[in-house]
Each structure stands twice: as C-alpha cells, then as structure tokens.
Prior knowledge:
By secondary structure, the protein is an alpha/beta fold. Helix content is 46%, strand content 21%.
Amino acid sequence: MRRASVVGVLISLLVVAGGQPFAANEASVKLRMAVNEPQGGGPKPKALAYFADEVKKRSQGKIEIVIGWSESFVKQGDMTTATADGIVQLASPSVAAASTLAPALNVFTVPMFFRSSAEYLKLAQQTDAFSKVEKDLEDKNLVVLGWGDYGAREICTSKKEVKTAADLKGMKIRTQASPAIVETWKNWGVIPVAMGAGEVPTALESGVIDGIDFALTAIKPFGLQDFVKFITISDHSISPEFIIVNKAAFEKLSPDQRKILRESTKAAVAEWENAKAAEATTIVADLQKAKIQFVTLSGSDRAKLAAAAKPVIDREVAKYPSLQYLVKVADNIRK
C-alpha cells in the first residue's frame, strides 16, 4: 500500500506536456512578448505564433505568451533594452536593432561575415560558436532562447545584370548605412548610396542608383518588382534574428518551465525555417512571372567577395573577443 500511495502522489504531481513532465501544481505564468511584425505576416510571425501555442500546450496552459504584434508593446529599436529592463519579458528583434545594447551583434550584418544562411544556422544550432556572444547578452540581463534568420540579401539591379564579382565595379548600389557595410561595398568596387527604402523605386527608375541589396521577401512589399529587372543570388549578407527573454524573469521560472521555453523555441525555429524555404520557392516563381531574370553568383566569385570583405571583418572582429571565438569555429567548419 505504501508503494502504491507514493506512486499515486507522483502521478498527481506530474502530467505529460509535449512529451515532457510538468508539475501540475506549478503557478500560472503570463509573459509579454514584443514583436515588430504584424500577425500572420510571413514565416517569422507564423513561427512566433507557433512558439506561443507550443508553450501553452507543453505547459498544459500554465504558461501563456501574450504577443504584442506590430510594435504594440514597444518599438523595435527599443525591444532589446525593454526586455533587459523587464518592461516586456520576451522579444524577437533583429540583431541590428539589438546592437545598441550589444555592439558586437552589428558585425553579424557585415557582408560575408556569414557565408550563407545554412552556415549561420549550423553555427547557431549545431556548435557552441555563439556561446560567448550569448554570455555577453546574459551580462546585459538577457537570455537567448534561439536563433533564426530573415533570409539572405541579394543583388537586385535595374539595367545591368551582375554575373560576376567584377560586374559590380562602378555600380551605384543602395546599401545599409553601417560604416562597416559601406566600406565592404567600396572594397567590391561599388559606389554605395544611402537612402530610405521608400525612395528606391524612383531612384531605380531615374538612374540615381543602379541597384539595391535586398531580401527577396521584401521586393514585392516595397513595390520593386516593376523596377528591378535582374536579381543575382549572392547570399552576401544574412539577416539574423533571435528570441530573447529577460534573465531575471527566466530565472524565476522552474527548471521545467525553462525547459519548455527552450524546447518550444527549438520547435518554432524549425517551423520558421521550413516556412521560409517554402515561401522562397513561391517568391522566385512570382518574380519570374514579373519578367525578372535570375542568375546565381558562382562559388569562385563569392570567394572573391569574401576575400575583399575580409579586412573589414577582421578589423571589426578584433574589437570583440566573443566574435573572435565565433570566427574560429566558423573557420574550422569551412575547412
């Protein structure tokens, strides 16, 4: 009888949620999550909604993630600081937006820092390459639950097709405004031009610029399909994103609750990547229907771009020990 009563007590304390034990007497928790994108607006928002649903399911309804879509809780530029300060408990900002709190993250956006989305995801998910970067963020009261990405930026032009690295010489390309990014494009022989995204269609039509580096997913939303005639698949720049949680709030959770957040994030990132891959196939087909021609930059030409970007990357990485370790791991998997 004593053995049966002990078993009965254990069963009453534990329920299975998403294949893992969860204490039935855990206190209910509500966590607010700041998000830039509108609900249902693409692979990332769908993945974040999936994350919230997974957390609720795995916790048997004891953890509720309340998502503030479309910057309704806080503006994207303030999301990282707001999460660190506990104004919201979770957020999913871009690393560019987070770099105000952790400047090393700004180097992630330098062209050819990551050679492809596949390399970035392998480093983030299958190695400890990001461990020191994550420790830097932990010192800022932030815990990284997982890494995803918005996809690669490609070379989109209006009149001249870019088939090789040499074809970029002398072209006027609208780029991101970061000094390190601008310097990299100059090393490629480009004349970088800074302007707002809303000015790009008129600038392409008038010849003020010859092209833009842009993600394929952004071309139609910005109305560029009528002005871009050629797209070179160069994957020269990755747009990393992550899911972060306030460290103090995270540590108040039980070990089971923390495990649920981490495992739900892992499932959501996989959903994100699957949705992104499916969307990319559809986008390319739609753009081809709009008479946009595609060419893929060769491996040798991408290597030339990487070599020209290396002095900028080396200088920027030297400023941050956490990035030095990441680059060391990246170099090892490239061999």
